[in-house]
Amino acid sequence: MLRALILIAVVCVFCRWALGKWPWDYLRPAPTRSQAVFRARKLLGVEHGAGRDEIIAAHRRLTTLVHPDKGGTNAAMQEANAARDLLLDELPHHQDGSGL
């Protein structure tokens, strides 16, 4: 019994090392778009009805903290950019009068 537990622990650690995820992470369902939008709003600190200017301002505030030149990481910067892009993509597209 103890050998089985040790073997399971070793396999879990190896999975984390080799694949970057714990084995139980593969059992979680993939996040939905609404969950991704919620996390993006939370990351940028904007409310549900935030407009384009507010999203861009929040992104600028966040990037001043997480930019690699300011001591942040590339991953954090990519996450901030992805959050901005996702929230901007969720905004309704208004006609600008050009008919396009």
Describe the structure.
- The protein is mainly α and 100 residues long.
- The chain folds into two domains: 29 residues; 62 residues, Helix Hairpins (Orthogonal Bundle), CATH 1.10.287.110.
- 62% of the residues lie in helices and 0% in strands.
- The protein is elongated and about 60 Å long.
- The C terminus is likely disordered.
Distance linking N and C termini:
69 Å
CATH-scheme architecture of the largest domain: Orthogonal Bundle
H/E element sequence: HHHH
What is the name of the CATH topology of the largest domain?
Answer: Helix Hairpins
CATH superfamily of the largest domain: DnaJ domain
CATH class of the largest domain: Mainly Alpha
Which helices and strands appear, and what pairs or packs with what?
Layout (H helix, E strand, L loop, with lengths): L1 H18 L13 H12 L7 H15 L7 H17 L10
Helix pairs in contact: 2-4, 3-4
The gist of it:
With 100 residues, the chain is mostly helical. It contains four helices and no strands.
Attribute tags:
100 residues; elongated
